[in-house]
Write a structure and sequence with these properties.
heterodimer, A: seven-stranded mixed β-sheet, B: 0% helix
Chain lengths: 113, 113
């Protein structure tokens, strides 16, 4: 089944403790991206990747890192999480950029205390 | 950056057509217009997309203004399962293949039985 898989679905952590949220897609998509969703703010793009080893900042990249060493994986790294990073995170992928639908994962709900 | 503007909320009766508007007055010539929806506790789901011509698929229709500064998502017969937040998205190329996506605030659609 074609899908975008995020892990974990739920995560509670403490301020400053490094964490990684994984994202994997099995559709051989070139484009991948991360979003966060907060009440009243809709979805905001954190980082995106056009292909392996090609990443760039979205609207809210501060406090996050990403890597794209393989086409299928696009992990989101929080080196020193803070409470303002408590949010619902979504990973998405698509075949190309302009003219292809985005496939979203089911989300990771992160709480930083 | 090209942005979109949508009404915060709309209501519809079940089995009636629904027209969801989106304004994107600063759209660039090669921006595609995408629509997604998000049901409660799920990731966003692709609905439809287009460039200049009106588009139809099994889920909905997309009507694009001649000047491309606005578009309308049309659900021909709303069902209770169509109650969701609908996002109008432009795939931004203003800086040359940046991959950046811009989400509007979304329209919360309520469907009354």
């Amino acid at each position: 089944e074609a899908q975008v898989t995020q892990n974990p679905r739920y995560l509670i952590t403490v301020t400053g403790k490094k964490l990684t949220v994984t994202c994997s897609q099995n559709m051989n998509h070139e484009y991948m991206s991360w979003y966060r969703q907060d009440p009243g703010l809709g979805l905001r793009q954190i980082y995106y990747s056009m292909n392996v080893e090609v990443t760039d900042k979205g609207d809210v990249p501060e406090g996050y890192k990403v890597s794209r060493k393989e086409k299928r994986n696009f992990p989101l790294i929080l080196e020193s999480p803070s409470p303002n990073q408590t949010s619902l995170y979504f990973c998405a992928s698509s075949i190309g950029f302009y003219n292809s639908p985005l496939h979203f994962g089911n989300g990771t709900r992160l709480t930083v205390t | 950056d090209a942005k979109t503007t949508q009404p915060n909320s709309m209501e519809s009766n079940e089995e009636e057509p629904v027209h969801l508007p989106c304004n994107h007055s600063t759209i660039s010539g090669t921006d595609y217009i995408h629509w997604y929806r998000q049901l409660p506790s799920q990731g966003p789901e692709y609905v439809i997309h287009g460039l200049t011509s009106n588009v139809n698929n099994r889920m909905a229709s997309l009507a694009i203004a001649e000047d491309r500064k606005s578009s309308t998502l049309i659900l021909h017969r709303a069902t209770l399962r169509d109650a969701a937040v609908y996002y109008c998205i432009l795939r931004d190329v203003s800086k040359g293949n940046t991959g950046k996506l811009i989400f509007g605030q979304g329209t919360t659609l309520q469907v009354k039985p």
